[in-house]
Give the backbone structure.
Amino acid sequence: MTANTPADQAESPLPDADAAYWEAAAATFDDEPDHGLRDPALRAAWAARLRSWLPAAPAEILDLGCGTGSLALLAAEQGHRVTGVDRSPAMVALARDKFAGRDAVFLVGDAAEPPVGERRFAAVLVRHVLWALPDPASVLRRWAGLLAPGGRLVLVEGRWGEAAPIGLRATELAALAAPLASRTELFELSAEPALWGREVRDERYALIVHPDRP
């Protein structure tokens, strides 16, 4: 489940609240511009970013906390084979509806421990999820273990809010990823309102982690 973005943070429970919260949120989840990606310009902005972050298509992509599948759909449209995981059955049902007629797999499960067995992926894509999980260093190690040789983690995160900010700074996430990484790439996203549907003043970024594996 992609976590709430800053416009929602002040009044909403933390995204690791009980599953009932996400079940209730599913019906209106796509009303947020960067969740539903209904605006063509916003959709195009995310598509361009994904094209630059993901490996060349076709590749096996694992979208963790996939929500209603908006980013997964962009990846599929670019020729990738997508597996999505979310803890909310209602979110997964909406994602499956979006993919009607397309070849993709959506599973109900915990993003921290994805139920994908021995499958390995060219990229693990995670947006606004890691910051809310307990023991993110262990989670990153687990996710890195899901990568095929040469694979990458695509982590879209941030630190949101002014009075009581929550989330992960880019420096914090880079430090957590450092023991795993042969190299990382940082993309600052705060100055790109096309991605969010509005101007933002908080910290938003993507960190691409290339683990220290052949």
Q: What stands out?
A: The two ends are 31 Å apart (CA to CA). Residues 40-53 form the longest helix (14 residues). The chain has a mean pLDDT of 89. The longest strand covers residues 147-160.
